[in-house]
Amino acid sequence: MAGKPVRPVNAIDQTRRMLSLVTYLRERPGARIEDVARAFGITEDELVSDLDVLPMCGTSFRGGDLLDIDTDGERIWWHNPAALGAEAAEPLRLAADEATALLVAARAVATLPGLRESDRQALLRATAKVETAAGEAAGASARLSVTFESEGGVFADVDRAIAERRRLWIRYYSPARDELSEREIDPIRLVSVGHTYVEAWCRRSEARRTFRLDRVAEIKILDEPSAPPEVELRDLSEGLVQPAAEDPQVVVEVGPGGRWVAEYYPHDSADELPDGGLRITLRTPDPASLKRLALRLGRDGRIVAPDDLVDSARRAAREALAAYDGTGTAG
Amino acid sequence: MAIAKAERLMNLALCLLGTRRPLSKRELRESIEAYLEAASDDAFNRMFERDKDDLRELGLVIETVENLEGEVGYLARRDSNRLPAITLDAEEAAALGLAAKVWQQARLAGAASGALQKLRAAGLPEDVDPYGAHSALEPRIPVHEAAFEPLMLACRDRRPVVFDYRKATAAQPEPRHVEPWALECWRGHWYLAGWDRDRGAERVFRLSRITGKVRSRGTRYTAPVPDVVTVRETVASWAGESADRSARIRLRTDAGYPLRAKATSVRELGGGWEELEIPYGHGLDAWLVEFGADVVVLEPAELRADVVDRLRAVAKG
Question: What's the pTM?
């Protein structure tokens, strides 16, 4: 088994799905395509492609029948459910990976500090039942774990505001400017990717903004109704920070000790340097916000461009050093 | 046109599930069209072995039985493949539905939906979906690291691995021989805990620092696997969150909110300055430098010297 090449998952996922489909369809003659696709969490096209394959399948050995399943585009009909013995259509036990994927995710969601207590209880009950049903297959799930970070109190207020469609007032810390600002926001959704964020319509900037909950210094639920304009929800799977093509470019050169920059900042390119360092090119709407990075890097790296950012970091370091002058540490 | 793999796998699964007696390879080959079309015995054998492995990955328990003539046969017995009875109410179903959507890694996302589909087939309620497509709560488990999947499988199957690892401050990666125990995701990054064979000690690795391929070593574990593996504590100490000392700093009144939030004491100094006592752990010097002239370190002298040293490096440019 060692060193087996990684396969594309499609055929595996489709087989897995079709095995459950036959069990499901057997109980539901004339099931609607729309409903089945929703129940299985797939698109109607995916379901139709399964329905194209199923008639080619069966317990075909020694003259057994193929599954006579077809669709009129709206409903699904299975004309010979007996082709599969009653036993062969029973729900299948969970595989180790399936149990792991579901249980690890369920345990992680249950750690969200602001999750509604009734939802958490339902999740914990469900987790326990799945663990029991999975039996041995649940064992490997202990080898993966995920913790979501979020500020419990803030989370609960945001969650309530979303449920009750009310506006929020927050005092929010911006690390880029090292300042707190007050703003009113209309919350849209909570997103947990490592940290937890609220995506909201910011009434001050009249734009969609994402706020990290652990940077919310204070929060109040207001009486005004929340009225975020209809915005298309972005797919956040590529990361919350999605620089625009027109954003100014910043070039950072780091030594080996500064390679973490490439892990924390989304970037366009990171080219190896001969000393084991990297030359990283990234884009940001506000290059001044990277002054903190320049200061933090110290001798592990420096900003190369743009010039005004280079100058402002150098100036900031000199100003800071002035406070240590005459105490024997400077000079 | 070649017969789709999903069709072949499905037919093999249905044959094995539908039979009461073991079916020989020959019988299976004659029954499944894709196998009949195989160009040679070798091609068929390879295909058949791979397909059996794939079905086992999907959770199918396939038994190998030898009959009196010494011929090997295969079957998937119902009682070892049946999902035990499980009854979930609508709220429990909705909660699992949310959990099944959080993986952003193809294999686990597929596995989680597969689990949910099996539960659906077993009667999981489907009418209530309070979260909907545009949920107000969207937890996501990010997996950007290429090393994740091979390490997940290695942890699952308890297989030693070797990979090139570049330590945070090292210019060049070094090969590491590891008996992997567990993977943990914290603050959006994945870490591996395991036994480092070269160092003869437990180690935690950050997946993003693994360069190149993770290769399996077909040997057994040499060190016992602990019952509880704690990755987070180790990582938290890297992040300077296990401070055992404290530092005194001067901070401008309108600046440094996160420092103030961590302070154990704050004293007004007048003239727009405050004096703070804050926990002093690994990495504090780098963090304080970020605040530029708004922070002045008072003590300890060691921290003060580190900060000045860093500032000088930036001032020189």
Answer: 0.78
